[in-house]
Design a protein that fits this description.
alpha+beta; Serine Threonine Protein Phosphatase 5, Tetratricopeptide repeat; two-stranded antiparallel sheet; 8% strand
Length: 529
């Protein structure tokens, strides 16, 4: 991040959101835009102001620039997408893996804006206890846990996208500070995230007083989900399994009425992706028709009348749902093959997930798709994440007993999506070696989380685990078969592990000599190395 940008971001975070003070409505609290109307000297007087700035942390995450990066960084370069006619040149560069240091999607400022709001809470909130006798230590720690969790989520996106980035844990207090920051290694950052999330988990709220808060604000359970994800990325498989087990144990203890459960296949699309905040949701970013709408989804995926940047290939990768598939039994029995995208002409599909309202099917099995005109939440974690993170971690074990347990986890989501196939549809006899179990988990994650901003990260995690990019390359190059030149160039670049990560935006490198460019982009990135 360049010096000028850091000063701008950090100074803005000291001008705090006055209009958030005193808002009691949960929709207002999560959707009002921070307003630069109160300076620091007039702030941090009582607990309501602490809560208001925590609200700003959430609100900053749903800004369009931040949302687009969460979607694009985790998905656009994967095999889930092909370019549509409306794709811009900068997005197409990403999809073709021809990424320049001038590409605007290598700007990380939106994430650091959120991070600095969190840093501001963590720095100034403890002093409020001396001024507000009604502001308790328990309330302070609960707000701090939310700030730690949000900051950790933002850094987790940065690490998965750039690998090494500046780790900044304090806000700016005046313009005289030195902002010539250097990068920290991914291992250092992940260690910090694990420590922060452990602290946050101890002090976080178990639940809030309404569904929108329970799904839209961090709780102990959603922090467990994030911590399990960080452990999985960091190859700490036993720890990942432990967090998932702790999550499932605590969930079961809530009883049948209150526990999270997967929505039945018939209602999955409507409940999970249309209405949002479903019975399987763990944490999702809250949008509102009367407040902040989710414009990023419609921009990237499109609407019923406007093409987005991307389409989905009909028959690529692990989510092969077309008749006659060689990947039996993944055929039209899978409800996700109908609900997640709408087949169109030319061998492509229009993405329906998040932008659709409902799908109906006539007696001949022909589907009719109705698109929504309202906004949609963005799901970060749901119960399927716990099952499939646990499955992936178990699949790394040398024990056949763990492989069988992994298969059981996969069956939770697979059986939900294929209710007509009967119980335990995926038989262990068909997946009795480690390689087949690992492939099954990877494929099931693609089917279950298609278009949810996770596929590229899954492929990078696979490459990091194997220290080899050949499998990733084999998947993503399928989307470039119509352009031999682009495919040849992408194949060359994707043979390097360093090329899986984004470059640091060139303006930031120019302004801050302490920042070093990511290794692959030090030479001319317009040609293969």
């Amino acid at each position: 991040m360049n010096m000028k940008m850091i000063k701008k971001i950090f100074k803005k975070a000291l001008i705090l959101p006055a209009l958030l003070i005193g808002m009691s409505s949960c929709s207002e609290w999560l959707s009002l835009k921070p307003q630069d109307q109160m300076v620091l000297d007039d702030y941090w007087k009582d607990g309501s102001q602490v809560e208001a700035v925590v609200g700003s942390c959430y609100r900053a995450m749903i800004e369009d620039a931040c949302m687009e990066r969460m979607m694009i960084w985790g998905e656009l370069r994967s095999d889930n997408f092909v370019a549509s006619k409306n794709v811009g040149s900068k997005q197409k560069e990403l999809m073709q893996h021809n990424i320049l240091t001038s590409n605007p999607y290598s700007q990380w400022g939106p994430m650091y804006t959120v991070i600095n709001y969190c840093n501001t809470v963590l720095y100034y909130a403890p002093g409020v206890m001396d001024l507000d006798a009604n502001f308790t230590e328990g309330e302070l720690h609960a707000y701090e846990s939310e700030a730690l969790a949000i900051r950790s989520l933002m850094y987790f996106y940065l690490v998965r996208s750039f690998r090494d980035v500046p780790l900044i844990l304090v806000p700016s207090k005046d313009d005289t500070e030195n902002f010539a920051v250097t990068k920290d290694s991914a291992s250092v950052i992940l260690k910090q995230l694990i420590s922060d999330l452990k602290t946050a988990k101890n002090y976080a709220m178990s639940d809030w007083d309404n569904a929108r808060y329970n799904k839209g604000r961090f709780t102990k359970q959603s922090i467990r989900a994030l911590l399990a994800d960080v452990y999985l990325w960091n190859k700490q498989y036993a720890e990942c399994i432990h967090e998932c087990d702790e999550f499932l144990t605590n969930n079961a203890a809530l009883g049948e009425t209150d526990m999270l459960k997967l929505v039945e296949a018939e209602y999955m699309y409507a409940e999970v992706f249309n209405r949002g905040n479903s019975s399987e949701s763990i944490f999702e970013l809250q949008f509102d028709d009367d407040g902040k709408t989710n414009l990023a989804v419609n921009t990237v995926f499109g609407t019923n009348t406007i093409s987005g940047w991307v389409s989905a290939p009909n028959s690529e990768g692990g989510w092969e749902f077309t008749p006659g598939s060689t990947q039996s039994p993944y055929k039209l029995t899978d409800i996700r093959g109908k609900d997640f995208f709408q087949p169109i002409s030319g061998g492509f599909s229009k993405i329906f997930k998040y932008v659709g309202a409902s799908r109906s099917e006539n007696q001949s099995g022909i589907s009719t798709y109705t698109y929504r005109t309202t906004t949609s939440n963005w799901i970060v974690y749901r119960l399927s994440d716990i099952y499939l993170m646990r499955a992936e971690a178990l699949a790394q074990s040398p024990s056949p007993a763990d492989w069988q347990d992994a298969l059981y986890m996969v069956n939770q989501t697979y059986m939900r999506a294929n209710p007509d196939l009967g119980l335990d549809s995926l038989k262990y006899a068909s997946y009795s070696n480690q390689a087949s179990i690992q492939q099954l988990v990877l494929d099931e994650r693609q089917r279950e989380f298609a278009f949810e901003g996770k596929r590229w990260f899954d492929l990078v995690r696979l490459s990091e685990r194997e220290q080899n990019t050949s499998k990733l390359s084999g998947y993503v190059l399928k989307t470039l078969t119509s352009d031999n030149t682009a495919q040849t160039l992408a194949k060359s670049k994707l043979s390097f592990m360093d090329a899986l990560y984004l470059p640091i935006f060139q303006d930031e490198i120019s302004a801050n000599p302490s920042l070093k460019q990511n290794p692959f982009y030090i030479t001319d990135e317009t040609v293969s190395k």
